[in-house]
Specification:
By secondary structure, this protein is α+β, with helices and mostly antiparallel strands. The protein has 4 domains: 94 residues, Rossmann fold, CATH 3.40.50.20; 81 residues, ATP-grasp fold, A domain (Dna Ligase, domain 1, 2-Layer Sandwich); 129 residues, D-amino Acid Aminotransferase, Chain A, domain 1 (2-Layer Sandwich), CATH 3.30.470; 82 residues, Aldehyde oxidase/xanthine dehydrogenase, a/b hammerhead (Aldehyde Oxidoreductase, domain 3). It is 31% helix and 27% strand. It has an 8-stranded antiparallel β-sheet with strand order 13-12-9-10-11-14-18-16, with helices on both faces. Helix 4 packs antiparallel against helix 5. It starts with a strand and ends with a strand.
Length: 420
């Protein structure tokens, strides 16, 4: 039996589902990982068929050298920070399905902005922000209010909205102070250019309109959108609190435009035989505008479960089949009612001791399932979206109902953190 290798750099909830999908495709699933402690090895051992321990999971040449004699059927990951290096490993071993260079581009949000503009797709005005002294010029160029974010960020890490030049300067200093403290390794490695993500940030003009997400599957040059996900509940940090399929109040014409924009974007970026999670704002002036393209991975947290409930499509199994070149998985039928997804975040920063209250949430009448994706010992921070507790629900009427359910779940869930 051939083996597919799953590459991880840090702890990831996705490993369980990806390994299961690999096994369902008739392959062994081994985990390529940096050194593990005994507790983590014991936790992961039941999920995979073996371990390949390497010094640096991002060192494509070294990892490819270790795997070459094992004749891998494929090399894949769902860890966004190592999508490009994992694709390079697959490329070196002759099992790549999408050029690694495509993923390198998509990890630079400013490069994505440029590529989409060259393809004629609408987007916000954008500029790189490398010196706080440039704030007046950038404010004039991009316009205010604006969004400031890491140029290679994910999970809404340190995203800030600014309305004045002084706030733009303050946002620069905040990111320059807090990003070096962030545990995510991506921020500590230069981007091509070279761009230092700890010192160079992205400023974009603020878009106005409802926000949506959509997963796109690309197979042999054809893009297929899975479902449009509405995001009616977003907090002041730009964190997603609640999502729903189908979106509230979205008519067929607007849905078709959103699907078309997502498909056009992934094809313009050169993605093929892979997937992408795309975020869109239906701007009042520009229409559907691509906000993010998370290439090489599906939606995070328990969103794949939301999509399977709503559509019958298992996007995790689809992503694995695209990465391996195996036949597409069978599809089922979605529920005939709207399905919601709520996220409960831990407040503050610290190492997780335990999570209480999830059983009480599961007992609420609208709740279908509660999925906790954090575990004791994990460092949690409110600088970024960490989908700590995920609630799948049905039986609600509108956005107000969904908001009320989120408020109730948030009151019930309790996180105990200890200072790290």
């Amino acid at each position: 039996m051939k083996t597919a290798f799953l590459v991880r750099e840090t702890r990831g909830h996705w490993i369980r589902d990806f390994a299961a999908a690999v096994r369902a495709a008739g392959l062994r699933a081994e985990l390529v990982t940096e050194p593990l402690d005994e507790a983590e090895r014991a936790e992961l051992a039941p999920l995979v068929d073996g371990f390949v321990v390497v010094d640096d999971a991002r060192d494509a040449e070294a990892v490819a050298g270790v795997l070459r004699d094992r004749e891998p059927a494929g090399v894949l990951t769902a860890a966004e920070g190592i999508v490009a290096s994992t694709a390079r490993i697959a490329e070196l071993l002759g099992v790549g399905r999408c050029p690694a260079g495509v993923f390198t581009v998509t990890q630079n949000k400013f490069a994505v902005r440029q590529a989409l503009a060259e393809a004629g797709l609408p987007g916000p005005r954008a500029a790189l922000f490398a010196d706080p002294a440039d704030a007046p010029r950038i404010a004039a160029e991009v316009g205010l209010p604006a969004i400031v974010k890491p140029v290679n960020g994910a999970a809404s890490t340190l995203v800030r909205t600014v309305s004045t030049v002084d706030e733009l300067v303050a946002a620069y200093h905040l990111l320059a102070t807090r990003l070096p403290e962030n545990a995510d390794p991506r921020y500590h490695r230069p981007l091509p250019g070279p761009i230092d993500p700890l010192r160079v940030f992205l400023v974009e003009s603020l878009l106005q309109g409802p926000e949506y997400a959509i997963d796109v599957l690309v197979r042999d040059g054809a893009a297929e959108t899975v479902a449009v996900v509405g995001k009616p509940l977003i907090d002041e940090r730009k964190f997603e609190l609640g999502m729903v399929v189908p979106p509230f109040g979205l008519d067929g014409e607007h849905e078709a435009a959103i699907r078309a924009a997502a498909s056009a974007a992934v094809l313009a970026l050169g993605l093929d035989n892979t997937c992408a999670h795309v975020e869109i704002i239906d701007d009042v002036a520009l229409g559907p505008v691509i906000v993010e393209v998370n290439a090489g991975r599906t939606a995070g947290g328990a969103q794949p479960a939301l999509l399977k409930l709503a559509t019958g499509i298992d996007v995790t199994a689809e992503a694995v089949s695209l990465a391996l070149g195996t036949p597409p998985p069978a599809r089922g039928t979605g529920l005939p009612v709207p399905v919601g997804y709520l996220v409960v975040y831990a407040e503050g920063r610290g190492r997780l001791v335990r999570v209480d209250g999830t059983d009480e949430v599961a007992d609420l009448p609208e709740v279908l399932e509660v999925v906790t994706i954090v575990s004791p010992g994990q460092l949690l921070t409110d600088d970024q979206e960490i989908y700590a507790v995920n609630v799948l629900a049905a039986g609600f009427a509108d956005a107000d109902d969904l908001a009320a359910l989120h408020a109730e779940a948030t009151k019930l869930v309790r996180f105990e953190l200890e200072e790290s």
